[in-house]
Amino acid sequence: MNGEPLLEIKDLHVGYKTHMGISHVLNGVHLTVHKGERVGVIGESGSGKTTTMKSILRILPSNAIIKKGEIVYNGKDVLKMSNEELLTIRRKKISMIFQDPTSALNPLFKIGQIMLDIIKYSYNLEEKDAKEMALKALKEAALPDPERVFDSYPFQLSGGMRQRVCIALALIGERELIIADEPTTNLDVTIKAQVLNLLTDLVKKKNVGWIFVSQALGAVRENVDRVYVMYAGNIIEWGPSEKVFSNPLHPYTQKLLECVPKLTGKEFAKGIRGRIPNYFHPPSGCRFHPRCDYIMDNCKKNIPEPVEVEHEHFVSCYLYHRR
Amino acid sequence: MNAIWKYVGKRILYIIPTLIGLSILIFVLSRVLPGDPARMAAGPNAPDWVIEQIRHQLRLDKPIWVQYYYWWVDLFHGDLGYSIYTKRSVTVDVIEYLPASLQLIFLAAIFEILGALALGIIAGRYAYRLPDNMVRVLAYIGISVPSFVWGLLFQLVFASLIPLFPTHGMYSYGTIPPPRITGFSLLDALLSGRIDTFVDILWHMILPAFALSLGAMAQDARIIRAGMVENTEKEHVALVRAYGIPERTIFSKYILKPSLVPAVTVMGMDIASLLGNAFMVELIYQWPGFSRYGINVMLNKDINGIVAVVLVIGIIFAIANIIVDVVVAYLDPRIGRRAS
User: Fold this and answer.
1) Per the CB 3.0–4.6 Å rule, which of A160, A172, A265, B135 could disulfide with B123?
2) Which residue of B has its CA nearest to A110?
């Protein structure tokens, strides 16, 4: 990909302290987004996608520990930033759309109160101008009657409208990067397509950097430039979207793509044998080896180095080390 | 605004059947329990005709529904019946003793609310750290030790060993009580312009009110703390943090408000139950209050007194309930709107 990197996550290790011990979730995640680039992240639930996204803005739950790694944004490491610098990133540069709009909006505050607070701290505006800015964002997110939405509590809106409100929040100001963490997973099937179209259109129109985390593989395929495949806290394959989807290399990616149900098919999707590992005692070596059909001795011992199999299409798997 | 008034009106309507039910229950209970109130009032050596006379005076010689009917007739004339314990109208007793208890409970409620908020917020703010651990230990002690033990302990420490506060009563020796205007001695002292008497009464109230408030304070501090710890990890807090709202605002606004909703409910009930729990503290501090009166009428099987005491406590619970409902509806818009 041409252009300079906007965001570069390097070797990120994040765990969670629990009463059962430390759960080692992220195990060396890396991810790059260039300016104006649309990047997809796919993988099973529980593979650490949300943890990675929340690390970028440093909004992880209080029991999370960032063990090592760098999150370089515009040349500066977010993890080493001062509070002031971090607030600037949160207020002006990166915005995030959360998975579940119902739990992401505080039920005791009106949409307008939350929006005004955000705008007030980000842009130091008079109440009147701040409200105008909020209404403009709501309108952009295709909410009918923005005045009414502004004056509503979250429980007075439908799920789809709530997610549009969250999209509106992400649109306030001129952002450089929008993170959408499974923005349609918790919506009704009938609304999913609408919200997704709205979001992809806005991203294209504004030409901002975009990280699209989703289980909806078809939507990812059509709407991103490059895609990362995540499994159990590792990036196992990445490359240009059309290459990864048409020629999946990692056994996990192959299985994951087979899982997409086909309306025309007579059979159910096969699924993948086994499940996401226990993060308290993750498997040694490649974390996918207990579920893999092509397991070799080396897989249990070491984490495979990435190999560039075709131009800009990388995979971390010993199957491609033989040559 | 309109919705909230409609909601309040509805709540007030709901308490009427509750109170009527309560009156029937306590009326019947007070009369079917073993023991003859007339015999207890007259004494073991009284001749039968005296007993009969008292029975007639209390209408105990009539069927119970007739008694209940006349109780209502009397009530509409402002009469709660004759007390065999104080030998006068129960109405007079209520007017005399209730204000003293209410003002004690009012002060205890202020201590309770302020203390619970302060302790709960400190513990929530520094969750799992030293201040939180200290509050948790304090709260544990506060919940497990009954209020009369606190009452005795405070008398020993703050009145006897370190004589900061008086040990009992409402006034210091030699103080002439203010003229009775409202019945609330604090208010009467203020109304008649006697600031020194006001301070004197307040001084007498601090230890009993504090002893009374501790149990509820500890419980509500724990509820506020638990709410804050829980809400800190909510997704909506992650959202406002992600958009650069400073931690102070997140804490004092987006975490605090949802944490107060469950606490307010419990607080209201705790404050209402202070009236019932106050009797030990009132006894220890010789406070001329309603709870002490309540325990005395129960021990003397004063049927009209018992009914009046239970109903007054019932009314106070009902009022506390309405206040709680309104405050909760104000804090949590989902509740008020849904009901209307």
Assistant:
1) B135
2) B333
Residue in chain B closest to A99 (alpha carbons) equals B235
Give the closest-approach CA distance of B6 to chain A in angstroms.
Answer: 20
Count the Cβ atoms, other than its own, within 10 Å of residue B321.
18
Q: The pTM is what?
A: 0.86
pLDDT along chain A (323 residues), means of 10: 83 94 94 95 92 96 94 94 95 95 94 95 92 95 94 94 95 93 89 91 92 92 95 95 95 89 67 86 93 91 92 94 70
DSSP letter, residue A12: E
Phi and psi, residue A289, nearest 5°:
-55, -35
User: For residues B114 and B125, what is the distance between their CA atoms, to the nearest angstrom?
Assistant: 16
Cα B111 versus chain centre, distance: 13
Per-residue pLDDT of chain B (340 residues; tens, 9 = 90+): 577 788 888 888 988 999 999 999 999 998 888 878 888 888 888 888 888 888 888 888 889 999 999 999 999 998 898 888 888 999 999 999 999 999 999 999 999 999 999 999 999 999 999 999 999 999 999 999 999 999 999 999 998 899 889 888 888 888 888 888 888 989 999 888 899 999 999 999 999 999 999 999 999 999 999 999 999 999 999 999 999 999 999 999 999 999 999 999 999 999 988 988 888 899 999 999 999 999 999 988 889 999 999 999 999 999 998 999 888 888 888 876 654 4
CATH of the domain at B113: 1.10.3720.10
Residue A123 near chain B (CB below 8 Å): no
> Of A134, A192, A129, which Cα lies nearest the Cα of A160?
A192
User: Does residue B152 belong to any structural domain of this protein?
Assistant: yes
Return the closest-CA partner of residue A182 out of A58, A28, A45.
A45
Our separate counts of H helices and E strands in chain B read 16, 0
Contacts of A151 in chain B (CB under 8 A): none
- Give the closest of B235, B244, B245 to A98, CB-based: B235
In angstroms, rounded to a whole number, what is the distance separating the alpha carbons of residues A262 and A267?
Answer: 9
Neighbours of A311 (CB within 10 A): 8
B42 domain residue, yes or no: no
- State the CB neighbour count (10 A cutoff) for residue B141: 12
- Tell me the nearest-neighbour CA distance from B233 into chain A, angstroms: 6
ipTM of the complex in this document: 0.93
Flag whether B283 is in a domain: yes
Q: Is the dihedral of CA B30, B34, B39, B43 positive or negative?
A: negative
- Residue B82: is it exposed, middle or buried by C-beta count within 10 angstroms (0-12/13-18/19+)? buried
- Token code pair at residue B325: 């409902």
- Hey, is the C-beta of A61 within 8 angstroms of any chain B C-beta? yes
Asked if B236 and A154 count as a contact pair (C-beta separation under 8 A), the reply is no
CA–CA separation, B340 vs A18, rounded Å?
A: 43
CATH architecture of the region A5-108+153-320: 3-Layer(aba) Sandwich (3.40)
Q: pLDDT per residue over A17-60, tens digit each?
A: 999 999 999 999 999 999 999 999 999 888 999 999 999 999 99
Residue B8 in domain: no
Contacts A117 to B, Cβ<8 Å: 240, 245, 249, 253
Dig out the tokens for B207 from the structure. 């230890």
Total of domains in chain B:
1
Judged by CB atoms closer than 8 Å, whether chains meet at A108 and B232 is answered as: no
User: With an 8 Å Cβ cutoff, are A122 and B238 in contact?
Assistant: no
Per the structure, the complete domain to which residue B134 belongs is given by 95-170+207-299
